[in-house]
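Bumping my old thread because nobody answered last time. Still need a sequence for this structure:
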């Protein structure tokens, strides 16, 4: 609805009659600045859907207040046994407040000189191996890009440690196109200076740990695409539908987002959840598309199944190969070649 933000929430109630009374009083008391609350029963008599409409004039156009109004208090209400934020619908004006990704999927495609998707990425693991130094990190990158791999990222837990200092990894990233360093630091000024270095292909951040308000400020000044990991999804997973969680990363400025592969046995996500997240990141909106980077169990034997739906729909996407490339006795170069060959074969079979 124009000039309204609508939040859709699914709730489970132990005592529906009592809880419905609580909600009616909640509406009358105006404990939240909403204009209207619709309550409808779902198939299960204990499940209800709430649609709460908020007028735009109660928002100050900041990320902090936006999140506080829409998601701040509701999950803590004692009336609910289970609580899931399913979706938000926002008018076009809201996209102007937050602006979305600075580069987006197409910007990343150009930056990595891709002719077509997917963006193929490996992960150097384990990140916290104290026997490794920058020389061995450089060695791990040697040869894999020549096979057709587009990118290799640090694991999301990589820190600024003595054996692998951040400055050394940044220097390597400036030297070696396609290497994507993880930047886990507390100094926002320092982070801003890092993001001014256009030699970097992309950096990985943990957006929900860093905080959406900070991410939204960084995306306005960065000269480097931001790849966010689904860190803290364990927290959000209790109260957020994965597609809404993905949408917030897009709304507030993440250019790419590590997205769970459904039915892989790694992340707790179904195929339906996977496609919902990808749709949320790539559907047509007044902001740029965020590139979904499908991770968690990809290997040559299942890559065709992963690719099929997105190839048919011509959706921008990437695939991340974790342990397959760097967790084997075989050379990373030979494993990367296996991956690239499998993707090329899958594409040929589909087109």
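Sorry it took so long. Here it is:
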């Amino acid at each position: 609805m124009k000039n309204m933000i609508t939040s859709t929430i699914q709730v489970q109630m132990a005592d529906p009659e009592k809880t419905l009374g609580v909600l009616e009083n909640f509406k009358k008391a105006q404990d939240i600045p909403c204009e209207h609350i619709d309550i409808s029963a779902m198939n299960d008599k204990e499940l209800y859907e709430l649609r709460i409409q908020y007028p735009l004039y109660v928002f100050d156009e900041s990320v902090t207040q936006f999140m506080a109004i829409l998601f701040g208090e509701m999950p803590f209400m004692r009336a609910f046994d289970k609580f899931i934020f399913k979706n938000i619908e926002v008018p076009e004006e809201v996209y102007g407040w937050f602006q979305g990704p600075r580069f987006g999927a197409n910007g990343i495609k150009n930056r990595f000189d891709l002719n077509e998707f997917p963006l193929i990425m490996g992960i150097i693991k384990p990140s916290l191996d104290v026997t490794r130094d920058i020389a061995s990190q450089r060695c791990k990158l040697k040869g894999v890009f020549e096979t057709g791999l587009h990118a290799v990222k640090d694991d999301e837990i990589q820190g600024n440690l003595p054996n692998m200092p951040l400055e050394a990894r940044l220097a390597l990233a400036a030297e070696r196109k396609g290497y994507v360093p993880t930047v886990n630091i507390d100094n926002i000024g320092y982070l801003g200076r890092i993001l001014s270095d256009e030699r970097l292909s992309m950096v990985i951040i943990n957006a929900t740990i860093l905080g959406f308000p900070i991410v939204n400020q960084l995306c306005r000044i960065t000269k480097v695409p931001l790849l966010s990991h689904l860190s803290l999804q364990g927290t959000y997973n209790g109260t957020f539908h994965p597609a809404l969680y993905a949408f917030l990363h897009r709304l507030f400025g993440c250019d790419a987002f590590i997205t769970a592969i459904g039915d892989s046995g790694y992340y707790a996500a179904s195929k339906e959840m996977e496609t919902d997240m990808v749709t949320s990141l790539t559907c047509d909106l007044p902001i740029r598309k965020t590139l979904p980077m499908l991770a968690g169990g990809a290997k040559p034997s299942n890559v065709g199944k992963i690719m099929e739906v997105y190839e048919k729909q011509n959706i921008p996407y990437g695939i991340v190969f974790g342990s397959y490339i760097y967790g084997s006795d075989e050379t990373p170069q030979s494993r990367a070649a296996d991956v690239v060959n499998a993707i090329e074969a899958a594409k040929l079979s589909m087109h």
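DSSP finds 15 helices and twelve strands in the chain. Let me know if any region looks off to you.
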